[in-house]
């Protein structure tokens, strides 16, 4: 109580967006409970802190559980059941979207063939996984999905997603663009009802209706869940985990390639090194960084890799690594004085004195060194 952290402001901003249509969160009592659970989790796990969609899940948990129980359920979801979902890169969710694409090709080949680019469907279904259908389905129906999730894990979300796509396969195949496909799915999901719900329906209000469309009669969530288990329940948890591992490598490699291209785009205009050479230097620099992470004893200093930093500053090396690279790529060596020159150069580049430098500083130094070397050669030739 009374403590603030970096995510406090972000939590405050999302408190009133969680379940605004539900009476429990239209007064300070419900809002205060939600604030306490989210803030407590941010202090428990600073690596995650707070991410959007955690507020929606937590608000639903608070409808059915006491605050401390809701807190530990949130811990289970964020740290065990949906690993790597709740961070700024949502790696876990992207991995599952990649797995979902493969499952679509396997179980719904006609739909996959019609939709040449399944990444469009993946972008639509991302919120299904991030919020367990809570943000795009009426609440009284979505809580049944959450029940299945707590019982069967992510397997339940995969198979329900496939059941939703199968139920709308005809509409999706006749869609002319991604926007129309989104309308088809949103209209279907917004009209999923729960015949067994004791309370009045609370819609998610995401449906898109044109004037010439008749109201959707709706699908009962029990029927949809039964179809998902009967038609797509053959995937075991072990099979899904195997798929996750395989696709995780692909997703991470894609992220690394994107990071590399972004770094080069930032650095190229500022240095006089040809792009192809700069690309090789980046690979050398990153290799040196990775060697320090996995094959050396950790040394107490600032973290070497911080994904929250700008692309060109994410990977960093220390003075010893810089000296190794300096000797490897410098246009000249100074015999016994090479190590001293590298040490002094590193101190000049280490502006904030945290004993680490990033790639941009490294190539800027090398670019200036090459310029001096070239100028000296011209003088010598004259």
UniProtKB/TrEMBL annotation:
Known InterPro entries for this protein? EF-hand-dom_pair, Rab-GAP-TBC_dom, Rab-GAP_TBC_sf
Q: Name one Pfam family in it.
A: RabGAP-TBC
Task: Fetch the SUPFAM superfamilies from UniProt.
Answer: EF-hand (SSF47473), Ypt/Rab-GAP domain of gyp1p (SSF47923)
Where does this protein have coiled-coil stretches?
A: none
Q: Which residue ranges does the record assign to the Rab-GAP TBC domain? A: 1-153
**Gene3D superfamilies for the chain:** EF-hand, putative rabgap domain of human tbc1 domain family member 14 like domains, Ypt/Rab-GAP domain of gyp1p, domain 3
* Source taxon at top rank: Eukaryota
Renumbered residue ranges of the record's region Disordered: 196-215
Q: What is this protein called?
A: TBC1 domain family member 8-like isoform X2
Q: Taxonomic lineage of this organism? A: Eukaryota, Metazoa, Chordata, Craniata, Vertebrata
Gene behind the chain:
LOC102728581
């Amino acid at each position: 109580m009374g403590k603030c952290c970096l995510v406090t402001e972000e939590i405050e901003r999302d408190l009133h967006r969680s379940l605004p249509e539900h009476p429990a969160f239209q007064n300070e009592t419900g809002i205060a409970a939600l604030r306490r659970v989210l803030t407590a989790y941010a202090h428990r796990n600073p690596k995650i802190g707070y991410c959007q969609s955690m507020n929606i899940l937590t608000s639903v948990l608070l409808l059915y559980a006491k605050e401390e129980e809701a807190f530990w359920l949130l811990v289970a979801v964020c740290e065990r059941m949906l690993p790597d979902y709740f961070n700024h890169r949502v790696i876990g969710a992207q991995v599952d979207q990649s797995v979902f694409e493969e499952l679509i090709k396997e179980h719904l080949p006609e739909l996959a063939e019609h939709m040449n680019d399944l990444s469009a469907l993946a972008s639509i279904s991302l919120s299904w996984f991030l919020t367990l259908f809570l943000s795009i389905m009426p609440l009284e129906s979505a809580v049944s999905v959450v029940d299945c999730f707590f019982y069967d894990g992510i397997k339940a979300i995969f198979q329900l997603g496939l059941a939703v796509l199968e139920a709308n396969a005809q509409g999706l195949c006749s869609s002319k663009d991604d926007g129309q496909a989104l309308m088809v799915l949103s209209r279907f999901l917004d009209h999923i009802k729960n015949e067994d719900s004791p309370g009045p329906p609370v819609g998610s209000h995401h449906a898109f209706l044109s004037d010439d469309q008749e109201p959707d009669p709706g699908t009962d969530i029990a029927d949809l869940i039964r179809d998902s288990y009967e038609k797509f329940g053959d995937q075991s948890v072990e099979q899904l985990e195997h798929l996750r591992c395989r696709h995780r490598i692909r997703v991470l490699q894609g992220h690394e390639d994107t990071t590399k291209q972004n770094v080069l785009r930032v650095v190229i205009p500022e240095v006089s090194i040809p792009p192809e050479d700069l690309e090789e230097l980046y690979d050398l620099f990153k290799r040196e960084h990775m060697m320090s992470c996995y094959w050396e004893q950790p040394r107490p200093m600032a973290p070497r890799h911080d994904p929250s930093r700008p692309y060109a500053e994410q990977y960093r090396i220390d003075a010893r690594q810089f000296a190794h690279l300096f000797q490897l790529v410098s246009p000249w060596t100074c015999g016994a004085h090479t190590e001293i020159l590298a040490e002094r150069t590193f101190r000049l580049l280490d502006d904030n004195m945290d004993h680490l430098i990033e790639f941009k500083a490294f190539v800027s130094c090398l670019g200036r060194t090459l310029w001096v070397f070239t100028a000296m050669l011209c003088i010598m030739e004259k």
